[in-house]
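ok trying again, last paste got cut off:
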Amino acid sequence: MARRHVVGVVQDGFDVRQRRACPALGAARSRVRYVRVRGDDPIGEPRRAPAARRPRDGYRRLAVRRKKRTRLAAGARRPVPAPTQANVRWAMDVTTDTLATGRPFRTLNIVEDGSREGPAIVVDHGISGVRITRELDRLAVTRPLPQTIVVDNGPEFTSRALDQWAYERDVTLHFIRPGQPVDNAYVESFNGKFRDECLNEAVFLDLLDARTKIAAYRVDYNTVRPHSALGDRTPTEYATEIGLAE
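nice, full thing came through this time. structure:
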């Protein structure tokens, strides 16, 4: 505003036009000629209203000061002691591999912690909570369900479908501590053998081929392969001794 006033004084005193006065004073004509309009702002107003409601959105979102959150007490996450009886506790986990076509697939590995037996390996492109409940109900036809199933904190295990299933069948879902797979040691041991002896050794042409080869591996694992932890007996032999044969 001061510069505009000076330009005006020069124009009046020397009777020159603004075009000559501005360069002489080093003033930009665009700033001298600009007139601020107060009142309605049809462009800015629609932008200011959402910004007031959601101040974290937009370019400077990360620069907004964050409020400290009150920590809530987390649910119990403790290591599970070794089972003293068979079929008291199962464990579940998911592994991932790839078909020859490059398309990924997943497996749901279910292990009986007492006998180290693998009741099922489910093979599919996706493993949801609903799919897990169907497989567990299928197993319940031929063998009693356990008291506890140990799982990690993956979305398929924290799903509402599995939670409802466990509630209705009086089965406890025991979630391991985040980032502590050792808390689910028996299924992790199975996963390692399964990957070394099956997934890394076989070429799966398609999903049907993967199911066929993995089913054959499960039979071999349960009935042929001896386990030092079971006194060099197979899981099926050990399960038979304690009355858990399929």
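cool. The two ends are 92 Å apart (CA to CA). Residues 129 and 156 are 5 Å apart (CA to CA).
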